[in-house]
Specification:
The chain contains seven helices and nine strands.
Length: 213
């Protein structure tokens, strides 16, 4: 059984702070077995971490689309920001990646709307319910949508600081590949731990700290 987190932010994100050493320590301690690094509109740190730590790191990107945020996983190239959700999904698929939906329907965190989600439903591999920075362990709207469209429901941390790693994650039965991960996630169990105040405020704190440097 492997603990996998599909949504984290390194120090390369404007609002992230997790360092390579912290990712390595998390893996070494077995708090997590696999981690997707999904920085905002960038894959450079994820590529570097993958080179250093191997396939325990999944190269991802949280992409700022014109219709809200979408995560691409197992990416080979950076996906440009500002495209429509449909165009973004196509770029992800063209390079053999997977489509993951973070914090859907949330307006504060730029989640995509129901109408947008329905447009790309046939291409979505996984969707978050819960997101580790949410105070609700369940999201009935997301769960209902995922079941209707046969999409894997996963728990992911959305960690912006190292202390949040290993709190919210999915548990899959075996080591995944880009081809096997969607089905493994459908059969996964989930672990959720309510975020601390520091977990919730980490993005704002990180932005402020970087601005003052």
């Amino acid at each position: 059984m492997l603990k996998i987190d599909l949504h984290t932010h390194s120090e390369a994100s404007p609002d992230g702070s997790i360092t390579l050493d912290q990712y390595e320590a998390t893996l070494r301690s077995k708090k997590l077995d696999m981690i997707a690094i999904t920085d905002h509109d960038s894959i450079s740190f994820a590529q570097y971490a993958h080179e250093k730590l191997g396939d325990k790191i999944i190269i991802g990107e949280e992409i700022s689309t014109a219709d809200g945020e979408i995560i691409g996983l197992y990416l080979q190239k950076k996906v440009p920001a500002g495209l429509s959700a449909t165009e973004t999904v196509q770029v992800i698929l063209d390079q053999g990646g997977l489509v993951h939906i973070p914090h859907p329907f949330e307006t504060v965190r730029k989640g995509i709307t129901l109408s947008t989600l329905n447009k790309i439903a046939d291409y979505v591999n996984s969707i978050e319910a819960p997101n580790g920075r949410s105070l609700q362990p369940k999201d009935d709207q997301t769960i209902a949508w995922a079941r209707e469209h046969n999409v894997a429901i996963v728990a992911a941390s959305d960690a912006h600081r190292a202390a949040a790693l290993g709190k919210t994650y999915s548990v899959i039965e075996q080591k995944p590949t880009v081809k096997t991960l969607p089905q493994l996630l459908k059969d996964a169990s989930m672990s959720y731990k309510r975020p601390s105040i520091r977990d919730l405020l980490a993005p704002k704190a990180n932005r402020l700290r970087k601005k003052l440097k």
